[in-house]
Design goal:
seven-stranded mixed β-sheet, N-(1-d-carboxylethyl)-l-norvaline Dehydrogenase, domain 2, Rossmann fold, 12 helices, about 15% strand, about 325 residues, 11 strands, single chain, alpha/beta, 2 domains, four-stranded mixed β-sheet
Length: about 325
Amino acid sequence: MRIAIVGAGAIGGLLGAKLSRSGNEISLIARGAHLKAMQEHGLKLIDKEGSFTVHPFCTDNPADIGVVDVVIVTLKAHQLPAIAWRLAPLLGKETMVISAMNGLPWWYFQRHGGELEGTELKSLDPDGVISQVISPERIIGCEVLPSAEIIAPGVVKHTWGTTFPMGELSGENTMRIQRFAKAMKEAGFKAPVSDNIRRDIWVKLMGNMAFNPISTLTRATLVEMAEDHSIKTLVEKIMREALTICDKLGLEIGVTIERRIEGARKVGHHKTSMLQDLEAGKPLELECMVGAALELGEMLDVDMPHTRSVYAMTQLLATTQEQANAA
């Protein structure tokens, strides 16, 4: 398949390296020192089995690539509105767009059905630009479960997990999603096709809403938060607020709070992506993980005092960091 990966950082690099090695024609869209290193030396992936290097086409301009079969978007959610219009040259009549991003996605209420069909979350797509460029019919949702990090420009370390659940927004099991799932499996990933990708996204999001901002405030790893009694109690309260939203949406996610926390504990001394971004001096993915959930809570008349308090503190931390970086 001809595949373009937009935002080829840690997760995008992991996908690009393995999909390239399995025989797909891969183009990576990145920027800065990471892009330069990949152009000059290729993309190196390190995992528990060792390491290998691939040499896909790398650019910062989607127009250099042209129409592809699949666009995989692995950008940070706050980056997409600013560059969405630049993705148009990648999109042919049959091009699929795989949304492999953290948090609530901009497309959540597209092809949703019911009273909320077409509802736009302003915290995710303030001016509606993404929806103008990427039509709902193109989109396949994807939940990102693995962990990876860029340890040097052009070098990605895969630390945990191989599973990327994915699903059509309509819940159908189509030929196109089967084709892409097959390509993922041939690359060494697990790619179960879900009949309700929104449910799967909430399973991860209920953890993100709590663990990510708390880790950013405390610098704690997953196991440290899960084993600290006071923090665990706060995590439980935030997760309960998330599940109240799910109830209002008619979603039964099938995972208890206890099981979700235990799953995080088993990951061990892993830093959340938000904490990694803080330490790297990068903007935080606060809106897609927490702000959008609060917007949804207001829409559905769900009281979320614990989520709101942690959000306010993390938002102030993000602001002070931004000011310090600009000084």
